[in-house]
Amino acid sequence: LMERKTHVKINRKEVMLAKLRKSxxxxxxxxxxxxxxxxxxxRWLPKYQCKEYIWGDVMSGLVIGIILVxxxxxxxxxxxxxxxxxxxxxxxxxxxxxxxxxxRHVSVGIFSLISLMVGQVVDRELxxxxxxxxxxxxxxxxxxxxxxxxxxxxxxxNLTIAGINAECGKECYAIGIATALTFVAGVYQVLMGIFRLxxxxxxxxESVLDGFATGASLTILTAxxxxxxxxxxxxxxxxxxxxxxxxxxxxxxxxxxxxxxxxSAISITVLVTAKELGDRxxxxxxxxxxxxxxxxxxxxxxxxxxxxxxxxxxxxxxxxPTGFIPPKVPQFNLMLRVAVDALPLAIVSFxxxxxxxxxxxxxxxxxxxxxxxxxxxxxxxxxxxxxxxxATSAALAKTLVKTSTGCQTQVSGVISAMVVLxxxxxxxxxxxxxxxxxxxCIIIVSLRGALRKFRDVPARYHMNKVDTLVWxxxxxxxxxxxxxxxxxxGIVFSMLCIIxxxxxxxxxxxGQIQDTSFYEDDLEYENLSTxxxxxxxxxxxxxxxANRNYFLKSLYRLTNLDPNLEAARRKKYEKKEKQHLKKxxxxxxxxxGTRETTLQLVPKQIDFQALVVDCSSISFLDxxxxxxxxxxxxxxxxxxxxxxxxxxxxxxxxxxxxxxxFGRDFGSMxxxxxxxxxxxxxxxxxxx
Length: 688
Fold this sequence. Notes:
Elements: H1 12-24, H2 28-38, H3 41-44, H4 50-79, H5 83-100, E1 108-109, H6 112-129, H7 170-194, H8 206-229, H9 241-251, H10 258-280, H11 291-306, H12 308-312, H13 332-363, H14 370-385, E2 393-394, H15 396-404, H16 411-427, H17 436-446, H18 448-451, H19 457-463, H20 465-480, H21 483-503, E3 507-513, E4 519-521, E5 528-529, E6 533-539, H22 548-559, H23 563-582, H24 594-600, E7 608-614, H25 623-637, E8 642-646, H26 650-658, E9 673-674, H27 677-686
Parallel strand pairs: 6-7, 7-8, 8-9
Antiparallel strand pairs: 1-2, 3-4, 3-5, 3-6
Helix pairs in contact: 4-5, 4-6, 4-15, 4-16, 4-17, 5-14, 5-16, 6-7, 6-13, 7-13, 7-14, 8-9, 8-17, 8-20, 8-21, 10-11, 10-17, 13-14, 19-20, 20-21
Pfam family, one: STAS
Membrane topology: Multi-pass membrane protein
Keywords: Cell membrane, Glycoprotein, Membrane, Phosphoprotein, Transmembrane, Transmembrane helix, Transport
């Protein structure tokens, strides 16, 4: 046997106390490092190579800023809020991530899935408060203020229960819910960073995330159809929203607004054509075509001068005030109402941001700090929530555009924020006549990437059937039930699939590769020779309580011997033998003599004298696993069959030692444990 190293026993209490003392001490250098770690901009900005980086950062920042403006206005439909709040969100998120983010390339801001999740919570709370979700009348905002918005809805809610002002209209209450939700989600993310709970993201596999994104995209698409055709239907809430919405659409399709239908058809045609041309000739274009901005500008001009709202009753964005609203603390009582909803929002936001950050850091050969990313996205939610903003996350589409236009550092985010600020201060009122159907078209076309996942299903199925099943279940639950429940269903189902795979793993007998000391699966390879008097059994999973029975059934089936049944059969024959001998009859019940009976007690099907268990795929044993191996050792020993273990890793060996598998003094360990299958086979052959 190889000798194990003796590990020095660590006093965990002393280690914890030492770490606590070290963390509680405060020195100038430690304080400096803490500040620079918390604000990474202090580390990289002094080293900024202006001549090398500035052009790429400015170009990518301008392009992203131009894309951000129409997307911010469009995604306000998903969040159920006014466009001005989406612009606030885009502005503050870029500034804060510039200060705290460690990724040079990700674009943090509004994201369609996050906006949808915020909008579902806002709509639910508005309904519970008694507001009408279908009131599309623009608020009277002559003074440019968003505080006096009671005219935006005929229902005024007495918020003494909710804890805000005595009177608050629909828009005021909606943004109050959104900011409270955003604040709580940010607090969750910061707490996850403090307690280093980033491992939670490991339970969101690629199949779960893709299925969730695709299912949510179907929900987003469904929610925008009513704007495409210009019909007034109630905004469905709760489970089954997708089905209910489509039923309402077909019931009310006769009320479609012809002007909105024509505008939507033209807008989608232009946007899709431009996107396809951009994808085809992207290697020749220095930067992506600002198609969304062009469509919005042209559509706004046509709507304004054609008076589409007055003449054809086409729904428009309405007044967007300029400037900033005074900051306001999110209401604590509203936080209690949305505390549960904030948890999936926080996890999804964090996972998308960190996964994108890691992907592009690997691509461009630099490192990020996942824990700092959690802090960054957390404060991108906490701080803007005081400034009437809602939840944010990194977005893949804008990040790809950012990298393709020459982005070098986080400075590009500041440039994008300046573009949004220009719109906030001066240009926002110009979008008054912009039709909502155009915004819906921009949202739907932006879902192309997620919806194209359906084309990848055959390739995904060919690669891994279980992952495909996880994708289908997550996508279906996210679309047909709700996004939050869909995410939970995806996580639980993927974990059940893993458990199922370990419960019924592959089991096989091994044969020897001719003229070698190697052994492989007898069912998968030709020309393998069986080892006389030896069975080699492989179990390709950890051995624990959930697959114990499957382990035993597979072993008995493949070796064609159940030692318990054989032992019972022998006891039965021995009992009959004794009964006949007592009667003085030297012939047994079968008409055989004593010697013949003794021969018959050794069944013909036992064609082996040693069982070698290949433990190379057994990563760990629990108490039940150790007990199972001890049982088969005892049961086969009663039949004069030795059980040998091969290729055990150190943790399995330690579990066997602690479980008493090798006896008290480990004296027989050399005859029971081998470091290769071949050594175990040679030992079995030498046994008499």
